[in-house]
From TrEMBL:
GO terms for molecular function: uroporphyrin-III C-methyltransferase activity; uroporphyrinogen-III synthase activity. Keywords: Methyltransferase, Porphyrin biosynthesis, S-adenosyl-L-methionine, Transferase. GO terms for biological process: methylation; siroheme biosynthetic process. It is an enzyme of class 2 (transferase). Belongs to the precorrin methyltransferase family. This is Uroporphyrinogen-III C-methyltransferase. Residues 7-218 form the Tetrapyrrole methylase domain. It comes from the Bacteria. SUPFAM superfamilies: HemD-like (SSF69618), Tetrapyrrole methylase (SSF53790). Residues 270-479 form the Tetrapyrrole biosynthesis uroporphyrinogen III synthase domain. Its EC number is 2.1.1.107.
């Protein structure tokens, strides 16, 4: 069978988006259908094509077997239909990920596939907690063990003696419930009861938490702390290497979960910088630009052309190319209203003129922008004077972005909302309303930061309680406010 159908069994890494491999990211971007697990960071679903079908395969306890069969069937079905299918799993697909069963089903059905490894939680979570799983002075071996079994009691069936004696560092997966049993077995079979143990919950994510102890004390420490799965239990002397807090937990914005309001398709540099500082950032809603139909207008006839967004710049040059219009025949001066549009123009070797010249009244002015701005006739005329308007594109919301938003909210991962503009208040609130959320409900758990007085006014009139208005509408001011307001400890 060769109808283009192909299945990728992909490891998504332990949580932090940046820990995906380049190959995994490419698979996600190509997918026609994506089947993902509960432990996969919902944020990476934002990398799919706008029309990609998303299928959630969260496990239903007790119905595990049936679920897995149903998943195998779906992989075969979509692969046979000629689709690019991505089966996305937390960590590495071969480590307690049942990839063998899925690969077998695909082999049987003659559907082509490949397996993309990922960083497994036992290593990723340990590293982000500041612990190397091996160390020349403390550990010469590392073992990955399940802390759970499919039997009635769920206790793992392991050669405890071999494990206790043969491995310096042990990572137990899915082991929180059986922690007491595990610690007991290891001690009974020869591990000293003083052996250090650490549990790392939600490793590599902003919600990362740890609880430390020894084989003797850990079960009690963990029950006091209410820490639950998903967590890795790391046993061995390496656990003592950890410095509290770890390099990851020391990042200035560690633990902050930010929803950054967005109004157009372009990605913001702000998000990137906040992430580097340790925050988790969800740019919402996710949008994409759909190019409008090419207009009849002859661009050679204008004196001034105003680009209202970087997308408009790109589309304008595409249209010129399509009509075989030489750029040297365009006599208009170019204007922009953002740095991003300016940079987009510079890529084509074009520079912008002073804005004041636009409104001199006697020239023919053309505005290029999205469909939304076209309706803002009053504002446009006030700012730019008499003009013609050509719609270059429509900024459309990708519907699956709401699913990502709902999952993040359920997991307590929306703690601060940042509104960079008045329009973003409108765009974000529309989505909230669509999901059936009230602003009062949002106010209970979330802090709101506005870039300036316009966004503040819009947020207040939409019903938000605004906590911070930035000193200046800049990335630097936002970072300062986030660090200062110590948002980490708030909410719930
Ligand atoms: N294939 C995955 C493991 C799946 S089994 C991998 O290679 O990582 C699910 C278990 O993995 C969870 O119960 C938990 O023990 C562990 N786990 C997954 N993600 C984790 C994370 N971010 N932090 C801590 N443990 C995690």
């Amino acid at each position: 069978m060769n109808n283009g159908g192909y299945v990728y069994l992909v490891g998504a890494g332990p949580g932090d988006l940046q820990l995906m491999t380049l190959k995994a990211r490419r698979c996600v971007e190509m997918a026609d259908v994506i089947l993902y697990d509960r432990l996969v960071n919902p944020l990476l679903l934002e990398w799919t094509k706008p029309d990609c079908e998303h299928i959630y395969c969260g496990k239903l306890p007790k119905r595990h077997l049936l679920r897995q069969e149903a998943i195998n069937e779906k992989l075969v079905q979509y692969g046979s239909e000629g689709k690019i299918v991505v089966r996305l799993k937390g960590g590495d697909p071969s480590v307690f990920g049942r990839v063998g069963e899925e690969a077998h089903a695909l082999d049987e059905a003659g559907v082509q596939y490949e397996i993309v490894p990922g960083i497994t939680a036992g290593i990723g979570a340990a590293t982000y907690a500041g612990i190397p799983v091996t160390h020349r002075d403390h550990s010469a071996s590392f073992t990955v063990v399940t802390g759970h079994d499919k039997s009635e009691k769920g206790e793992p069936l392991i050669d405890w003696q071999a494990l206790a004696r043969g491995s310096d560092t042990i990572a137990f997966y899915m082991g929180v419930k059986n922690l007491g049993y595990i610690a007991n077995q290891l001690t009974l079979h020869g591990k000293p009861k003083e052996t250090p143990v650490i549990l790392i919950q939600w490793g590599t994510l902003g919600s990362q938490k740890t609880v430390s102890g020894t084989l003797e004390t850990i079960a009690e420490e963990v029950s006091k702390s209410n820490l639950t799965n998903p967590a890795i239990t790391l046993v061995g002397d390496v656990a003592n290497i950890r410095k509290e807090p770890s390099w990851f937990e020391r990042k200035p914005l560690f633990g902050q979960h930010i929803l950054l309001g967005r109004t157009s398709g372009s990605q913001g540099a702000v998000a990137h910088e906040l992430e580097e500082l340790g925050a988790e950032v969800f740019e919402f809603p996710r949008m994409y630009s759909k190019t409008a139909e090419k207009p009849q207008a002859d661009f050679r006839n204008f004196d001034q052309i105003v680009f209202l967004s970087p997308e408009s710049v790109e589309i304008f040059f595409n249209w010129l190319r399509a009509d075989k219009v030489d750029l040297r025949d365009i006599r208009a001066a170019f204007h922009v209203r953002s740095k991003k549009s300016e940079r987009a123009l510079e890529k084509y070797g074009c520079f912008t003129s002073e804005l004041s010249k636009v409104k001199d009244g006697c020239s023919k002015v053309l505005l290029l922008g999205n469909a939304h701005s076209a309706n803002d006739k009053v504002l446009l005329t006030d700012t730019w004077g008499p003009h013609e308007y050509v719609i270059t594109h429509h900024d459309l919301v990708v519907s699956s972005t709401d699913v990502t938003c709902e999952r993040l909210k359920d997991e307590g991962r929306i703690q601060t909302i940042v509104f960079p503009s008045a329009q973003s208040v409108q765009t974000v609130s529309d989505r909230f309303m669509k999901m059936g959320w009230s602003i009062e409900e949002i106010n209970e758990t979330v802090k709101v930061i506005c870039f300036g007085s316009m966004s503040e006014k819009a947020a207040l009139s939409a019903g938000y309680k605004v906590d911070v208005v930035l000193e200046s509408p800049t990335k630097e001011a936002l970072i300062k406010a986030l660090i200062q307001s110590n948002i980490t400890e708030v909410v719930k």
